[in-house]
Design goal:
The complex is a heterodimer of chains A (465) and B (489). Chain A is mostly helical and 465 residues long. Chain A contains 16 helices and 6 strands. A 5-stranded mixed β-sheet of chain B has the order 2-1-7-13-14, with no helix packed on it. A 5-stranded antiparallel β-sheet of chain B has the order 9-8-18-17-16. A two-stranded antiparallel sheet of chain B has the order 3-4. The chains are: A mainly alpha (465), B alpha+beta (489). At the A-B interface, α8, α11, α13 and α14 of A face α1, α2 and α3 of B. Chain A: Pfam families: FTSW_RODA_SPOVE (PF01098).
């Protein structure tokens, strides 16, 4: 802590570890959800909820253990990411628990109370986080698994086709005895590893072997191959799994990483053209997509005489206003079913914490994303840079697609809000994602080893006249 | 690779920024609109989170609120003697909305009215929950009860007015319904509501027959025809012989005679005698002699052809149409295309009883804030002057004759001067359906004229002729008048 350098993560020799900063912020990250939890209890029942001790201890313990592990195994890691993830996860638990208090949406058919399960998944997520930090000493090891990652990603993406659709989208696999998993959440990490490894090797060929045409660099056909394959694949996901979000996520991820790797703006232009073309083509014959777009353009329209989920979410936001109704005092359960706990959890945030609370949450996401990209900037190896920007980019796209969909900025796609929304796969995968970012940032910010003492230095004499 | 990385960072920043702008747009700019959207259930939840104000009759609430623990809505409306008061209160249902007074005065009852701003502000500071105000009606519970019980199982309606102020004293309609049965939103409520709908119940119990249903007025319309004759100077002396041949043929027809009910002395009968016996020939000829234009003008002075009679519940429009000569002659005896609501006929009676001045009918006396401050008070106002006072006197004399020794003797009350007119309106093609029995009347004491009443009974057995009105409707009118007079003693 003796250094006077600023908080930048760009590694200069002697950068502070900032572990104590992290600890201080972790205290807030635990206290805020605990207070929120008490607040909900007071609002709903008029008394401090019975589970408060368990919840505080649980969250505190998770935060404490993660902090100690980071201190030991990633001492130079970014100090902001862990507190933000803890805070978002903790608040998510509070919101899910708060929605569990509504009997109408906590029926047996809807799986009953979901907060205990989410607590368990969070613990597993944190365990995976710890595992990554402890066992992955250097992220560059992952380069070796480039093509294995590709295979794994494809398997994860294609697997849901063989399982029945749930809630209108075919994005689940059901494992007897374990429950449902959303492999797409894990696929996003694995595919970022594959892209980073592939592009690190191919970047020069993609960047340089191209012809200039009307100010754009047109790549060679064989280099264009992979992007076309990924584009086609993302459209296939869209068509067969009716999953707009995931396809958008993977395609965007690929374009962003390609752009960073090659430094060629033309890739962005191609990406936009292809995605626009693909979206229009699919929208013309896929009724699912048309419905989403229609709902987006007419958010308050009645359907069969009833109010749609989209409209209910808009009412939630509107009724929340600037300061919100207060935790536990909103009616976001009107969205109905399991949706308020999963895809639409932001509606509850918007209604009960108001515009102020929602903006705070969005800024937390923004901060986490920017810290991830900062990590990419700071990383010294191209693989680390690409992986970090890939993971942060995927995270950013997911936040944008979900939050934009729920608030009516863009058509709705069924995806989970990282950390906040109910969903085991999501919370586990995102903890792993943060662990990888922390590992990269640790490597990036670690002081370079002191130069070996030069024997010449002693022998050289300055001869003064 | 750092340059594109910085651009990606900016791009991600823009994504978050666009989200921030969007939520500001939704939660700040659009917030009020979304918050108060009619489909936003929170509006209804808020509304039912407190007991509704009450509708008051004679100092007592005829409505109440009860808590129901299930569902979103904490309070539910209940009604005391719901079926009897339904034509006045209307209903307020969580699932099916509201109508009549419940709807028109909703902002007072639910406490959101701007007139309650002061009381709401005080509540805000004292931390009390928002409360609803009360609606104080002009109705007379005894008269209402007499009307409702008098109608009994038959289909019909009663409207009673205080001629001097226009205050509505009774407004009964049968068959009726109890609004309490569907005030909630359970399946039971839905079932009850559906069973009351016209398509499921041919009796149409939710129809407010006193205000919202028009009937051919039958012979009761002859008082309007008589008023037109007097006002236009066709006849001035009600005891002088009129120029009324018997048989009398409808104008512009191939000798189609207008028949009287039975063999009654109608030839050249005086106005008074003609009304007493309810002579179709005399009044048909008066209408024909005056012509459609003058008849229509007089009817309109009594409130016909006015689509905006708000009590404040709007009454259906009673019509006296522009018509050809034979039809106009028939309209003069209330038997053609002219139609009237029971309220309209009560208004006709009250104008005659009130010396020719028609007061605007109303049933809400005042609106009261939760702290009992009066926020709005009705002052009686004149609507029109269909008759000169001296002509009103003459008509009263004629109507009193009807009750004293004419077709309306069933309306007599000991020690009280009663004027009335019976009516039996034929309806249905070729007269095949059961007729409507009418009776309109007023009661006069030395202290004034406190009540005018119109009674109509639909499709009553096979009795024909003016006897029906006198036999079926007059006793009900009598009981209603007695109930009002009892209170005045």
């Amino acid at each position: 802590m003796s250094s006077t350098t600023t908080t930048t993560t760009v590694g200069t020799i002697g950068a502070p570890s900032r572990r104590n900063t992290e600890l201080a912020m972790l205290v807030f990250a635990v206290l805020i959800p605990v207070f929120a939890y008490i607040n909900v209890g007071l609002a709903k029942e008029g008394s401090v909820p019975a589970g408060i001790l368990g919840y505080s201890l649980g969250l505190g313990l998770l935060a404490g253990v993660t902090h100690l592990v980071v201190r030991k195994w990633a001492p130079y890691a970014d100090p902001l990411m862990l507190p933000i993830a803890t805070l978002l996860n903790g608040l998510g638990l509070v919101f899910i628990w708060r929605l569990d208090q509504e009997p109408q949406i906590t029926t047996k058919q809807l799986g009953g109370a979901l907060a205990p399960g989410q607590m368990m998944w969070s613990t597993i997520g944190v365990a995976l986080f710890l595992g990554v930090l402890i066992f992955l000493k250097d992220h560059r090891v992952l380069q070796r698994y480039t093509y294995i990652s590709m295979v794994v990603a494809l398997v994860l993406l294609i697997a849901p086709i063989f399982f029945p659709a749930k809630f209108g989208a075919r994005i689940w696999i059901t494992i007897p005895g374990v429950g449902s998993l959303q492999p797409g959440e894990f696929a996003k990490i694995v595919i970022a590893i594959f892209f980073a490894g592939y592009l690190m090797v191919k970047r020069d060929a993609l960047a340089l072997a191209s012809r200039r045409f009307m100010g754009l660099y047109l790549p060679r056909g064989r280099d264009l191959g992979p992007i076309l394959v990924i584009w086609a694949l993302s459209l296939m996901i869209l068509v067969f799994e009716t999953d707009l979000g995931t396809s958008l996520l993977f395609f965007g991820l690929f374009v962003v990483m390609l752009y960073v790797a090659t430094e060629r703006t033309s890739w962005i232009v191609f990406g936009l053209l292809l995605s626009a073309g693909g979206a229009v083509a699919v929208a013309t014959f896929e009724s699912h997509v048309q419905t989403r777009v229609h709902n987006w353009l007419n958010p308050l329209e009645l359907l069969n005489g009833g109010v749609t989920e989209t409209a209910q979410a808009m009412y939630s936001f509107g009724s929340g206003g600037i300061l919100g109704s207060g935790l536990g005092q909103g009616y976001s359960r009107l969205i109905g079913g399991i949706a308020p706990k999963s895809d639409y959890i932001l509606a509850t945030v918007g209604e009960e914490a108001g515009l102020a609370g929602l903006m705070a949450i969005l800024l937390l996401y923004g901060l986490l994303i920017e810290r991830g990209i900062r990590t990419a900037l700071a990383a010294r190896d191209p693989f680390g840079k690409l992986l970090a920007v890939g993971l942060s980019g995927a995270f950013a796209l997911q936040v944008f697609v979900v939050a934009g969909g729920v608030t009516g900025l863009i058509p709705l796609t069924g995806m989970t809000m990282p950390f906040l929304a109910q969903g085991g796969s999501s919370v586990i995968a995102n903890w792993a994602l943060v662990a990888l970012l922390l590992r990269i940032s640790d490597t990036a910010r670690r002081p370079a080893p002191a130069p070996a003492p030069s024997t010449d230095a002693e022998m050289t004499q300055v001869v003064r006249p | 690779m750092n340059k594109p990385l910085r651009r990606v960072a900016i791009f991600c920043g823009l994504l978050v920024l666009s989200l921030l702008i969007r939520v500001n747009w939704v939660q700040f700019v659009q917030a009020d609109e979304l918050k108060n959207d009619t489909n936003n259930r929170r509006v209804a939840i808020e509304r039912y989170s407190q007991p509704r104000g009450n509708i008051i009759v004679d100092g007592k609430a005829i409505t109440d609120s009860t808590t129901n623990d299930s569902g979103d809505f904490k309070y539910k409306r209940i009604y005391k003697d719901g079926a009897m008061w339904a034509p006045v209160t209307g209903y307020a249902s969580q699932a099916f909305g509201s109508n009549q007074l419940e709807k028109l005065n909703d902002s007072i009852l639910s406490g959101t009215d701007d007139k309650l701003f002061f009381s709401r502000t005080v509540d805000m500071f004292t931390g009390e929950k928002q409360k609803g105000g009360d609606v104080v009606t002009t109705l007379n519970p005894k008269a209402q009860k007499a009307a409702f019980e008098g109608l009994g199982k038959s289909k019909g309606a009663v409207a009673a007015i205080n001629p001097e102020t226009g205050a509505i004293l009774a407004l009964a309609s049968t068959p009726s319904y109890d609004p309490s049965t569907f005030a909630g939103m359970s399946d039971k409520d839905a079932k009850a509501y559906n069973a009351l709908q016209k398509k499921n119940n041919p009796d149409d119990p939710m129809l407010n027959r006193a205000l919202r249903q028009t009937y051919p007025p039958g012979s009761t319309f002859k008082v309007v025809t008589a008023a037109a004759a007097l006002e236009n100077g066709l006849y001035t002396d009600i005891n002088a012989k009129t120029d009324s041949p018997l048989p009398w043929y409808l104008p512009d027809t191939a000798h189609q005679p207008l028949n009287n009910e039975g063999n009654i002395p109608c030839e050249n009968a005086s106005l008074k005698e003609a009304l007493r016996w309810s002579c179709n020939t005399v009044f048909g000829k008066i209408s024909a002699d005056l012509g459609n234009k003058k008849m229509k003008a007089e009817a309109e002075k009594f409130g016909f052809n006015d689509s905006k009679i708000d009590t404040p519940v709007r009454a259906a429009e009673s019509v006296y149409p522009t018509d050809n000569r034979p039809q106009n002659a028939m309209a003069g005896i209330g038997q053609a295309s002219n139609r009237a609501t029971p309220l309209q006929m009560a208004m006709v009676t009250s104008a005659i009883a009130n010396g020719g001045k028609l007061m605007k009918p109303y049933m809400v006396d005042k609106l009261v804030a939760p702290n009992l401050n009066v926020v709005q008070q009705h002052t009686p106002e004149a609507m029109s002057q269909p008759l000169k006072p001296e002509n009103a006197q003459k008509l009263q004399e004629m109507m009193e004759g009807v009750v004293k020794n004419g077709t309306g003797t069933n309306g007599q009350i000991d020690g009280v001067t009663v004027g009335g007119k019976t009516g039996t309106a034929q309806h249905g093609e070729n007269n095949k359906d059961n007729p409507y029995a009418w009776f309109i009347s007023y009661a006069k004491t030395s202290k004034g004229t406190p009540v005018a009443v119109a009674v109509v009974i639909e499709g009553s057995d096979t009795l024909r002729g003016d006897i029906a009105g006198g036999r079926l409707a007059a006793p009900i009118a009598k009981k209603v008048m007695e109930a009002v007079l009892d209170g005045k003693k």
